[in-house]
Amino acid sequence: MTSRWISVVAPIVLLMGGCGGTGLYAPTPVVTLPATPPASDSRVGTEVIPADQREPLTIGGLDTDGSPLSSADHLGDVVVVNAWASWCAPCREELPLLTQAHESFLDEGVIFLGLNVLDDPIGAAGLIASSPYPSIFDRDGALMATVPGVPPRSIPSTVVIDRQGRLAARIIGPVQPGQLEPLLAELAAEA
Predict the structure, then answer these.
(1) What is the pTM for the complete model shown?
(2) Do residues 44 and 173 touch, judged by C-beta distance below 8 A?
């Protein structure tokens, strides 16, 4: 009787774990946003910070090759930093949307950086190879823990830094179709 109970409950527990990965890490809270934001506001799920309330934010460390990489290197550009992990299914699912936004804004002073959190280099290698932009390696999650308003284990999460190096917006959970583009267009147009 007990083994039958375990065979029924165990898959349910695994499904409820979300991006908890291999069990080596605590379950990661993931906020699920609507599949398609309402037409009236394509930024549903995006917390936009008013310009007069933005505070400086620098996210920097070493990339997966051991070279320094920082949002501060791109002062004067809009910087999108996406926190991800190879074991996180929503992170893999949102990569095509991020890649498309990256390509759309390439000539408008918008830079994309990844923040590979709570991952190992071997597990991350496949996603890094399929990403058109570099990633900072944050194996223990210490860098992510410094991002204001983003819970340390909320993977995926995305923050946008304005041209002055200030936190302009954050998205907790996976990026949805059409969610980033209006914000990036607005920030790219700011002087």
Answers:
(1) 0.78
(2) no
Spatial separation of the C-alpha atoms in residues 185 and 121, rounded to whole Å: 33
Give the chain's domains with CATH numbers: 29-189 (3.40.30.10)
8 Å CB contact between 172 and 33? no
Residue pLDDT, tens place only, 16-39: 334 544 333 333 333 333 333 333
**Mean pLDDT of the 130-136 span:** 95
Note the pLDDT tens digit of each residue in 45-65. 799 999 999 999 999 999 978
Maximum mean pLDDT: which of 6-15, 39-48, 80-89, 125-134: 80-89
Yes or no: say if 179 and 171 are a contact pair by the CB < 8 Å rule: yes
User: Pick from 37, 21, 22: which is nearest to 97 by CA?
Assistant: 37
> Residue 72: what residue type?
A
Q: Mean pLDDT throughout 107-132? A: 93
